[in-house]
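Please, structure for the following, as C-alpha cells.
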Amino acid sequence: MHQQQLGNQPFVFSMASVKRRALNDHLLDTFISKLGLSPTVIKAHPNYQNLRS
C-alpha cells in the first residue's frame, strides 16, 4: 500500500474523479481542435484548470 511521506495516512483517490478529468480533457481537446484554437494559448489561460475539474 502506498503511504504518504508525511504521517501514516493511506493514499486515497477517487476513480470517478480520475475518469471525469480524463473525459473533460478529451472534450476540451476536441473543442480546441474543432474550433481551430491554439492549444498552447488555451491551456496557458488561468481558468483552464477550472474547466478540467
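The chain has a mean pLDDT of 89. The radius of gyration is 16 Å.
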